Amino acid sequence: MMPRAAILLSLLGTLAHSAEVIQASKTAMAISQASDRPYRIDDAICVVRDNKKIACGRVAKATPKGAIVRLIVVKAEVKKGDEVIRVTSRGSAGTSSETVTPPTFSKNTFGGGFLYTPAYSYTLIFYERALSSHFSVRIEPNYFSAASDNNSFTMAALGGKLGISFDSTEPFKGFWAGLAVGYYSFTYTPAGTLTLGKQYFGALTGSLEVGWRFKLGKFIGLGIGVGAHYLPISSNLADPNTANAVLAPFSTIQFGGAVTVSAVY
User: Fold this and answer.
1) Fold of 4-86
2) Residue 241: per-residue pLDDT
3) Cys-Cys crosslink for 126: which of 46, 50, 140, 235, Cβ 3.0 to 4.6 Å?
4) More confident: 233 or 8
5) Pairing outcome for strands 66-74 and 28-32
6) What are phi and psi of 56, to 5 degrees?
7) pTM of whole model > 0.70?
């Protein structure tokens, strides 16, 4: 004969499984209302499949017919029809006690990579700090140099950009989009017989990029992306002896791609 405690736990478990998933996404789910005790805002909820908790979260909105749950911990994809239980201080469905706590995400990434456009290419370094599970701020110092088509001068730039990044899954993982603005200090160095000498001037810059970021293990990140870089040059340089223009004002939008490797922590 089964002990009374076992029978009671079995009955409670049956009642706790009275609700189910109606619709689910990666971050939230809609569930039917519990028949034994209606769900209320901030109730801790878990999804059970094969007697194992596969996802947990908290009720964000509740109505007499159902509830919306914000998922916090997801171990497997939640599907329509999955069983739903309320997590109590004494455990649920005969399991040991557990609490629903937010997952720990990486907060920082530091690394480098290589950027290529038809007009210029350079190695890059960057640092990002996560502001939330989807947004982070990015600092990217840069230096690059390039020669003109006829090698009459070279142009070197030192500066950097400050931007905001969006990641679809978690910080530094999944689909990625970034928008950044910055400033470059240019050094113009003529070649041959030009007497202009070195010239210095500055310019604002901006970029819009999209791509995909992967996490290799726990601490290594890999990223690939494409984007557009805008660079306006307003200086009008001329040789003082001949008055011939050697660099007229111009602006350029360059499309290119980048590959990055970083430490994630």
Assistant:
1) Thrombin, subunit H (2.40.10)
2) 53
3) 140
4) 233
5) antiparallel
6) -140, 155
7) no
Name the one residue in this structure whose structure tokens are 């140099």: 145
Question: Per-residue pLDDT tens for 120-163?
Answer: 778 889 999 999 878 999 999 988 887 777 777 788 889 999 99
Identify any residues that bridge with 234 across adjacent strands, giving them in sequence order.
none
Q: How far apart are CA 70 and CA 133, in angstroms?
A: 14
108-264: CATH class: mainly beta
* Higher per-residue confidence, 82 vs 89: 82
Domain boundaries, the chain: 4-86, 108-264
SS3 sequence, 167-187? Answer: ECCECCEEEEEEEEEEEEEEE
Which residue, among 236, 238, 149, 235, has the nearest Cα to 197 in the 3D structure? Answer: 238
Beta bridge partners of 222: 214, 261
**Which residues pair with residue 154 across a beta bridge?**
147, 189
128's tokens: 């990002």
Render the burial of 160-195: b for 16+ CB within 10 Å, e for the rest. Answer: bbebebebebbbbbbebebebebebebebebeeebe
Location of structure tokens 């590959």: 259
Q: Is 24 exposed, middle or buried (0-12, 13-18, 19+ CB in 10 A)?
A: buried
Question: How many residues would you count in the chain?
Answer: 265
User: Both tokens of residue 81?
Assistant: 């029809």
| Nearest to 78, CA basis, from 27, 24, 31 | 24
E strands present in the chain = 19-24, 28-32, 44-49, 52-62, 66-74, 83-86, 108-116, 121-130, 135-147, 153-167, 174-190, 199-216, 220-233, 237-238, 245-247, 250-264
